[in-house]
Amino acid sequence: MATHQEVKVKKTKTMTLSIPTAGKGPNGEPLFIGAVDAPARIKGTLTFSSNYECKGNDIYIQYTAMAVAKWSRRSGKRTYYYEGRQPYDEQTIQLVLPHPKPGAVQAGEYSCPFDFPVDAQNMPSSFRGTYAWMTYKVKAVLVRNFPSTNVVREHVVWVLNTLLPRPEMPIPNAPMPMTRYSGNLKDMVDYICVIPSTMLFLTQQVPITFKVMPSAHQIQVVSAVVKLKQYTQLVVRTGSKKDKKELINIPLKDGWPVPEPNQSWQRTVVVPFPGAPQLTPTIQTPMITKIHILKLIMQVKLSPRNDKHEIRIEMPVAITGPRPPGEPYPAFDLNHHLSRLDRIH
Q1: Is the pLDDT of residue 174 over 60?
Q2: Cα 31 from Cα 52, distance rounded (Å)
Q3: What is the mean pLDDT of residues 267-295?
């Protein structure tokens, strides 16, 4: 006589956050790039499924943007701790689930799309430093009654905001916007240093041009170096901290023109800026300030006695994120750039 055996089905319960993006952040995070005219939108889907009636109430999807500064200082035998938090945004969506009885969720599969806009003009880009960081996070919480613990899933996302305007079609023969720094060596020789703008962006190819004006005295460059320095200041209620870091150091010993009397000369060097996380965009808030200075430091000889001098040009710049995908700035064309430099005197 045949007997019927009951087949036991294994109880399974899953909750996932899916945030698909074309690009990835420095550690594989979903990457979002936004601009003032085209803000990033953190989009994704929450999916919850259970093949049995499980414990739980509703699910809350929370988006947060938070800056944190945290460090310690040793003095004698005591250690002093400093911490500050600066919230920028918080948004929450509630996914209402069917409850056959209080504190229980009916078996089934449930999903909820989410779409959180990011204010590119007023919110910093993601960054992570030793003593401060800016984090964008999406978290889903299935709330359960005590003594059960909540079910939590979360994703850190990487956001790059840009202050660059939308690129327009170039106008033929229009003057190229540039920023120039003028100087004079010992009241004998005038020179200028030219960069495209004081607003630069991550991964940009930045041309730096040094131009010497005609003079009876000649400047001969012995060696030079291009540096990008980052200066950080953190301020919390109980204290403050300053830090500096050298992000770029490119020596330029060879390749300098041989000067001739009463003739101008120039040299352009293209400096590749790193991306995140090596380079943090400029930020100025009450708690966190990060500023950047691009430096050209040159050791030179001045005729007729070949006296040694130093030329130091410091150029404060603001670093921002790149334009969103599909709207990149035109590829850098060195020949086109050099053709415009002759208009600068």
Answers
A1: no
A2: 36
A3: 95
Percent of the chain beyond pLDDT 90? 77
Single-letter amino acid code for the residue at 153: R
Q: Are strands 205-212 and 189-195 parallel, antiparallel or unpaired?
A: antiparallel
The owner of tokens 């509703």 is 58
Measured CA to CA, the distance from residue 193 to residue 184 in angstroms comes to 11
Omega cis (within 30) before 147: yes
DSSP secondary structure letter of residue 330: P
16-40: pLDDT as tens digits = 999 999 999 999 999 999 999 899 9
Q: Are 63 and 43 a contacting pair, CB within 8 Å? A: no
16 beta partners = 47
Q: List, in order, residues 6 or more apart from 6 with CB less than 8 Å away.
A: none
> Looking at residue 78, what is its pLDDT?
95
To the nearest 5 percent, what fractions of the chain are helix, strand and coil? 0, 55, 40
Quote the CA–CA distance of 195 and 197 in Å, as a whole number.
Answer: 6
CA distance 288 to 38: 25
Euclidean distance between CA atoms 30 and 49, whole angstroms: 23
pLDDT of residue 10: 87
Contact 205, 332 (CB under 8 A): yes
What gap in Å lies between CA 160 and CA 212, rounded to an integer?
Answer: 38
Task: Please give the backbone phi and psi of residue 334, each rounded to the nearest 5 degrees, phi first.
Answer: -65, -40
Cα–Cα distance for residue pair 141/94, rounded to 1 Å? 10
Burial classification of residue 21, based on how many CB atoms lie within 10 Å of its CB (0-12 exposed, 13-18 middle, 19 or more buried): middle
Q: Cα angle at 19 between 118 and 98, to 5 degrees? A: 100
Question: Per-residue confidence at 91, pLDDT binned at 50, 70, 90?
Answer: very high
**48/321 Cα distance (integer angstroms):** 35
CA–CA gap between residue 345 and residue 335 (Å, rounded)? 18
Return contacts of 173-181, CB within 8 angstroms, 24+ apart: 175/340, 175/343, 176/337, 176/340, 178/340, 178/344, 179/315, 180/344, 181/313, 181/315
